[in-house]
Design brief:
Elements (H helix, E strand, L loop, with lengths): L2 E3 L10 H5 L5 E3 L4 E3 L9 H5 L5 E3 L9 H9 L24
Antiparallel strand pairs: 1-4, 2-3
Length: about 100
């Protein structure tokens, strides 16, 4: 099992989840984050830290977000690892209700 960042994160990109990851599984794309499933140790720390509920265990990803499982696996290693907190992106596609 691995955790998955869904498209809910697109244009929001809160990074507190990456900062709590003990194994540096998060990768930062310009508009979202990805989790490398081969690095993820399923500790669940990131899911609790995500303020917009964009992270799910791969077995519990809602049906409409299932493509995110493959996206994380294919895209994560194309981008640099992120281990720190940065200001959220809050772009046009951000589904953050506090925006």
């Amino acid at each position: 099992m691995a955790y998955v960042v869904t498209e809910i994160c697109v244009d929001c990109k809160y990074t507190s989840c990456a900062a709590v990851c003990p194994v540096e599984a998060f990768h930062e794309a310009p508009d979202t984050l990805y989790i490398d499933p081969d690095t993820c140790i399923d500790c669940n720390a990131c899911q609790y830290e995500c303020p917009i509920d964009a992270i799910f265990p791969d077995y519990d990803v809602p049906e409409k977000h299932k493509p995110s499982i493959e996206m994380n696996a294919k895209e994560a290693n194309k981008f640099p690892v992120i281990v720190t907190t940065k200001p959220p992106l809050k772009g046009a596609k951000c589904s953050d209700p506090s925006k």
